[in-house]
Amino acid sequence: NLTCWQSDSYVQYPHNVTLTLSLGKKFEVTYVSLQFCSPRPESMAIHKSMDYGKTWVPFQFYSTQCRKMYNKPSRAAITKQNEQEAVCTDSHTDVRPLSGGLIAFSLGDLSFPSKKLESPHSTGQGGMWVSSWIPLARGATRASHPVTPPLQWGSPGRTSRVSSAMHTGSPRVGTSVAGADADGLRSLPLAACNCNLHARRCRFNMELYKLSGRKSGGVCLNCRHNTAGRHCHYCKEGFYRDLSKPISHRKACKECDCHPVGAAGQTCNQTTGQCPCKDGVTGITCNRCAKGYQQSRSPIAPCITPARPGNCDSYCKASKGKLKINMKKYCKKDYAVQIHILKAEKNADWWKFTVNIISVYKQGSNRIRRGDQTLWIHSKDIACKCPKIKPMKKYLLLGNNEDSPDQSGIIADKTSLVIQWRDTWARRLRKFQQREKKGKCKKA
Q1: pTM for the whole thing?
Q2: Which residues belong to any copy of the NTR domain (predicted)?
C-alpha cells in the first residue's frame, strides 16, 4: 500500500515544511517525480546536494507567486546568462487533483535548461549526480492534510520510488552508475530486466514506466536468437514460435521456410507458422496445390483450376466418387484389378500413369500380372473427369481390353469404373470371382 510522509497539521506560511531525503550514495539522476497524497503545494523549492547535505544548491522552483516567494520571474526566457540557474514556474501548482497530483520533470527536458549536462554540478558524462534531495513546500490549503510528497527519482537503467520504504521496478542491465557507487547500489533491491535470456543490455523508458503504473520501465536492447519486443518475448519477422520450447530457449523461434513460389510472402503466422499461400496453394509452407487445382508452370499462379472442355456433359458423366460395385458391373468388364497410382505424366494426347497392380480379380484376353505396369487414359477423359484419378491413391479399376499406345499396359476410358479402394471390397470381389468360374456371369 502507498504511504506518505506527513507534516504537522495546520502548518501555515511563513513556516515551511521541509523533507530531506538522504540517498546514502551519489546517483546520476535523469528525472524527478513527486506525487502528493494531499493537494499540491502553492509553492515549492527543490534543492540538491553533492556533499551529503553540507551545502545545498537550488535545483527547481514552483510557485503561483514566483517573484514574491523566490525573487524569480515566472517562466522567464532562457538566455546564455541564466541557463545554468534554477528557474521558477507556475505550472503544476493547481490544487487539483486533491490527491495523487504529480510534479515531474526530466533532465533532458529543454524547458529546464539548468539541468543540462554542462551544469557545474554535472559529471559531463551522463547526467547530474546528487547525494541528497530537499523539497521545501508551502501548503496550499488550511486543511489538516499532509503536504509532503512521496518522492521518486530515476537514473539511466534504474528507478526508485520512495514512500515508506525504497524499492525498485526497473532494470539494472546497462546502468550508467559506475565505480564505488555501483557497489552501493547492489545492496538495494533492484530488479533485473526481463529479457527472457535473449539480451545482455536494456534501457529505461520513462513513458513505459508511467504506463505500467510505475512498476517497470525496462526495454531490452539488441534481442538475439531471432526474438523481438520490449522483453524479447516474441519472434521477429520471418520466424515463428516453437511451442515445444519455452520462450527463454535459444531456439524458441523457428524460420518460416515459406515456399519461394507457392507463398505470397516470407512472413508466416508467429503462432502457427502458417505461410500466406497464393490462390489454389495449400500446406503450412505453401508447397502443394489445393484440392481441385493442378500445378502450372507459372510462378505467378502455380496452381490453377483445370479447364473442363465445354462438351463434357454430352461426352460423359463425370464420376462423383460414390460408385458401388455389384456382380452385374463385375461381369460386364473384361478385367478387375486393385491398383496403386505411383506417378503420372502427359504423353501427347494421353496421360501415362505408372501403377502398381496389387491384386487381379478378373482378366480377359490380355494377361495382367501383379507388379508395376502402365495405365493409359486419354487426355480428354482426364479433363472431363471420366474417370477421376489422382496419384498416390489406391483404386479398384474395372475396364475393357483395348490396344494401348505402346502395345503394353492397360487402358481405361470414360466407360471404365475407377472407384477409390476400400479394404472391405476384397472379400466381395473374391466371391464375384468364384461365381464367375461357376458360369454366373453369363446369366447376369
Answers
A1: 0.35
A2: 312-441
